[in-house]
Design brief:
19% helix; Alpha-Beta Plaits; alpha+beta; four-stranded antiparallel beta sheet
Length: 116
């Protein structure tokens, strides 16, 4: 599954707009996508560091239109928490000297459509 196929669209409500200040972004994702799939897709598409992912499955509601019965489609929602303060990482290299990497992650998703 391609990264563009996992993230379908942002899920924008009043509650999700308030959660953006805390670094939590809400997306409608593919039904078969796992938390790991969602995390890697968000990291690759938006260039942010994902801290955690919560998912919720929704079943379609029964609806009637002019005597015809049917169901709305099932869907899945993912709440992605991103790192708002990326730090430098230090580790010991092959020669025993400490090596510092400067991770350049964005601290927000500008394409989401909401301003913080």
């Amino acid at each position: 599954m391609m990264y563009e196929d996992i993230i379908i669209r942002p899920y924008i409500t009043e509650k999700s707009n308030e959660a953006i200040a805390e670094g939590k972004y809400t997306f409608v994702v593919a039904k078969k996508a796992t938390k790991v799939d969602v995390a890697t897709a968000v990291e690759k598409l938006f260039g942010v560091k994902v801290v955690s992912v919560s998912t919720q499955n929704y079943n379609g509601k029964p609806k009637r239109v002019q005597g015809f019965s049917g169901y709305r489609a099932d869907w899945k929602k993912a709440i992605v928490t991103i790192d708002l303060d990326p730090q430098q990482e230090t580790y010991i290299g092959k020669d025993g000297k400490p090596v510092t990497t400067n991770k350049k992650y964005k601290t927000s998703i500008e394409e989401f459509g909401a301003t913080v």
